Amino acid sequence: MSDFWNAWVWVLVIAFLSFISWLLYSNYIDSHSRRDHHRLDETHDGIGERYAPIPVWWAVGMWLTIVFAVAYLVLYPGLGRFPGLLNWTTEKALLDEQKSNTILQETLKKYRQVDVEKLAGDPQAVLLGQRIFRNNCAVCHGHKGEGSWAFPNLTDDDWLYGHSADAIKTSITEGRTGAMPAWKETLQATQIEQLAQAISGTPTEEGDALYASYCAACHGANKEGNPFLGVPNLADDIWLYGGSFDEIKQSILVGRNGEMPAHKEMLSAEKIHLLTSYILSLSTKKEEGAANE
Ligand code: HEC
Ligand code: HEC
Question: What average pLDDT does range 145-161 have in this prediction?
């Protein structure tokens, strides 16, 4: 910045602030020094013009703004070449940010070398994984991974695709689509009701026979599910789409196709590694809790 422009900015800024201060001061003093605040100044054709002083709250707000402006100009760059007492520069701010980014990248790289099972026991890694989870996964799986209707709970030990680290990593990287066909075209309404009854807790001979012919191939002879196909266990008390007679009937009628989006384009391999260990830590905590009970 040349000397001329440096001086120009100084003069302009100081002149402007002084002018505003003077304007405020003179008006405020003028209006509040009169005793008769609401005297009638003039009358035109019977319409009176009253004299209204500047409200105190407004004047105080204005003074605070001026004080803020002066403090800012003393601390930060704004007055020509004067750098401000804090020596803040955009270059330095950028460098600081890049430094903290590099630290994050290096931490992520370091964690990438460690087994996910081991990382799940490292509180520092778990905390970082939790942050990535809350930013990317919590919308669907809940703030603590507790899940909700149609979104699986990731903190219990019931898994659609199995509990291994590899299965969890594949779910995150490649995404998953549940493939439960709709049966309303294939089966009669009474058959679907018999099936829903069999699954919701009152097995009948007809229901069991229907299950064996239409469902056991995927859900297993004992309703135990199949992690290779992402097929849920129907014998436990954990339900993705609800376990009442009506909800089960609905699952059979219309089918279910839960969609877990692939994250390989959105998240680096390092972040997915850390997320996997975070999710492992959620179910490990639960097991420890159960052991303590
Ligand atoms: C748009 C909603 C959505 C988002 C975002 C999402 N998920 Fe999922 N996720 C699902 C659904 C739905 C399923 C169940 C898929 C199915 O039914 O086959 C699932 C399944 C999973 C599974 C397999 C669970 C099991 O029981 O085997 C894991 C692990 C998982 N998600 C982790 C994550 C992680 C980690 C993130 C963040 C990077 C994430 N999800 C983001 C919807 C989502
Ligand atoms: C091709 C394999 C396949 C067949 C055959 C199949 N299912 Fe499914 N079923 C699935 C999958 C996969 C899911 C999970 C869907 C999801 O994740 O969105 C599922 C989900 C369900 C659910 C919901 C479970 C929950 O936790 O809410 C019920 C109930 C169900 N199936 C009942 C049946 C019945 C009854 C039959 C036989 C008429 C049947 N299924 C046949 C694959 C199958």
Answer: 95
